[in-house]
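Lab channel / #folding
Pinned by the channel admin:
"Please post every new chain as: sequence first, then the structure tokens as a reply. Keep commentary short and put observations after the output so the thread stays searchable."

First post following the new format, from NK:
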Amino acid sequence: MKIREIFKEKKLTISFEIFPPKTSSTIESIYDSIETLASLKPDFISVTYGAGGSNSKLTLNIASIVENKYQVNSLAHLTCVGASQYSIDETLKFMQENNIENVLALRGDIPKDFAGELFKDFSHASDLIYYIKDKTNMCVGGACYPEGHVESLSENMDIKNLKLKALAGSDFFITQLFFDNSFIYKMEDKLNLLDVDIPIIAGIMPITNKKQIMRMAELSGCSIPEKLGRILNKYEYNPDALRDAGIIYACEQILDLITSNKIKGIHIYTMNKPEIAKRILNNISTLR
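Reply from TO:
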């Protein structure tokens, strides 16, 4: 089912994100995670792409398994980096042959050791969105950044780039991680001023490891609020307490987002830890 159709049936969507196992691993290593997440009956499960398109075949295979074996709507990530029109056509063909109706079109991260041509036929996510919408009837999502893209020259430029994605045909936006809800509300207000009225799904990252989250925040340009900083410092060397506090923090974020009535979905970055997603979902099950 296309995600744009789900919005017509539900006031709030709940979804999860997983990533392919390392190339040296087998695809079977993620089956247990998918099965647990599927049992929670999310509206969809997204599957990430590696930097520069690495693990792209695994992404497609996993998305197909989510869709066809577990009967859960899948959202396959697709990036511009290193992609030609031919490779995109082949990917879209595979998706259509495997009943994958949803794609998240991204520029993609640029790996440090990438040896090929970075941008062949698609330079921006908006180019990819337009191409997919022109060639198929797939539901296409785009990424948005509550605190602005780390490479953006200004907040206004970042918002204008989001409008380009909207004009290209994006059906919805999923946010990059953020820990201060005021940023997503400000972003939405700015989009409204530009007459961009597209469903926004909030990406929530439960915290389980201080070093990991600090590294991800630095790479994405995401700030760490004072309250969260205190949690990270107090429980840095107590994994169980940090996990529990991280889940509480994520649930408080989600409660605020749900009661704001400004977002259309909650997307949990599971980090392939389905037990974390399960605990969060249990905590918010009556709030939806």
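NK: The longest strand covers residues 13-18.
TO: also worth noting, Residues 54 and 175 are 22 Å apart (CA to CA).
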